[in-house]
Amino acid sequence: MQHVRVIAFDADDTLWHNEIIFERVHERYRELLAHYHDTATVDRTLYATELRNLELYGYGVKGFTLSAIETAIELTEGKIGAEEIRLLLQQGQAMLRHPVELLDHVAATLPALADRFELWLITKGDLRDQERKLEKSGLREYFRAVEIVSEKDDATYAAILEKRNTKPAEFLMVGNSLKSDILPVLALGACAAHVPYSLTWEHERSTALPEAPGRFFTLTHLGELPVLLNC
User: Fold this and answer.
1) Which CATH superfamily is domain 19-97 in?
2) pLDDT tens for each residue of 82-132
3) pTM score of the predicted model
4) 6-16+100-228: what fold?
5) Distance CA 188, CA 167 (A)
């Protein structure tokens, strides 16, 4: 850890709330289709549609909304009405306008670290929406680099590190997803700090526990990061 000079942060559910917004819409979506199918069927079919469409739409609200409409048409055998589809579109638009709500300790932690480390933001999702959230968050000034990517895997992180002339030993990734934020960077030989969030999308869940003594850490909240780094 003494060699770390760059700290990269995930965005959604690491710096600001995100999954809870999706979950509230999921609840209304289940209610909308309740007289057609039970909750388990709705959830299972929507998730399958989202995964099938990831290659086309990528991650984010727009892809979710399109998948929700497609699933509703499928589960109702085309009986869903125009007003119900209009409601799904409005809910998606509301998600894109939702205020950015920072997680606890974020506002104090980033400026404390920015004086000692080079900070990056590495997040996946819809480019326009992620740019909007970053600007609305008030955190943009602390990041020397912003990378909004289609996927977060070993190859993506390796390409970013190479582009920015950074060795894995100099790099610490901080995020809430073991699958996207932790396991790929540990595979490269970098360090990672996991900050779990109360909700995790099924696609981001991982049962694999990292085995990287001295390089992998679990934090209760972001405010513990300066202590970990002896700041």
Assistant:
1) Putative phosphatase; domain 2 (1.10.150.240)
2) 999 999 999 999 999 999 999 999 999 999 999 999 999 999 999 999 999
3) 0.92
4) Rossmann fold (3.40.50)
5) 10
